[in-house]
Design a protein that fits this description.
globular, alpha/beta, seven-stranded mixed β-sheet
Length: 264
């Protein structure tokens, strides 16, 4: 996997700001994560509701909610102000929730202050070594880091293959940012001797056309209104949907991959 740093991402891909104008679609149409993921952390890794969670790169709070619903106290660490505000608004009823302006390499949290560091769908934006040092700093001795993402399937159905082709054709910087997830060997190497294991779970969404449009527009590489590719991209999406929909929806399929371990 080619190494990138958060500094590089900020200069050419604007990683902490590139979702600012997509928050509404992100909140409404991005997928959650399978409950089996939490079950794996509980049963295979010994996580329980007493563990305090730092959710790094928490975005609009989708991953934070998974742990709040299970009784955890969660601090969402998110540098993008509109996304952090959306999380605060959505999750304000949870007494165990707070959000802070911080980054993977500078969370702002105290030393040894959390039991579990989580990263959902954001690890590929980080400077991996700087993040590892920061996670190790804020974790208590014996604490755990868990990193996961929903990886969209690129093939297997006519819709999935057509959607990938659509992104290749109309995405603004799709090839620069898409599917930049680490492979299994890279993640084992990142954890080193503290690696505890991994798991994979099937996940997906059934989307009507409006939800599919919103799911597409929540992606940072989808051209916005006013861009010359925006209208033809939506025409292509409509054609793909009409060709593939069954009973008014298409199946947007993922494999959710999780890796966990200690950080010395």
């Amino acid at each position: 996997m080619a190494e990138r740093t958060e500094v590089d991402d900020m200069s050419d891909l604007h990683s902490t700001a590139r979702f600012s104008d997509r928050v509404d679609d992100y909140v409404r149409y991005r997928p959650d994560y399978p409950s089996a993921l939490l079950g794996w952390l509980q049963h295979a890794q010994g996580v329980d509701a007493s563990w305090r969670v730092a959710d790094i790169g928490a975005g609009t709070g989708i991953s934070s909610k998974l742990f709040l619903d299970a009784g955890h106290r969660v601090t969402a660490v998110e540098p993008n102000a509109p996304m952090r505000a959306a999380a605060e608004h959505w999750l304000q009823a949870y007494e165990g929730f707070d959000a802070v302006d911080g980054r993977a390499d500078a969370s702002g949290l105290p030393d040894v202050s959390v039991d579990l560091v989580t990263v959902a769908q954001a690890f590929h934006w980080f400077d991996e070594e700087a993040a590892r040092r920061e996670f190790a700093r804020i974790l208590r001795p014996g604490g755990l880091a868990a990193i996961w993402w929903n990886s969209r399937r690129l093939s297997g159905t006519r819709f999935l293959e057509g959607y990938e082709a659509l992104l290749q054709t109309w995405g603004t910087d799709y090839t620069s940012v898409a599917e930049r997830y680490a492979d299994d060997a890279s993640m084992r190497a990142w954890f080193g001797a503290g690696y505890r294991g991994s798991a994979s779970f099937e996940h997906g969404q059934r989307l009507d056309f409006e939800a599919l449009r919103g799911r597409l527009m929540s992606s940072s590489y989808a051209p916005q209104v006013g861009h010359p590719k925006h209208v033809p991209m939506l025409h292509a999406l409509r054609e793909l949907f009409d060709a593939c929909a069954e009973h008014g929806t298409v199946s947007f399929d993922y494999d959710t991959r999780i890796f966990a371990g200690h950080l010395a």
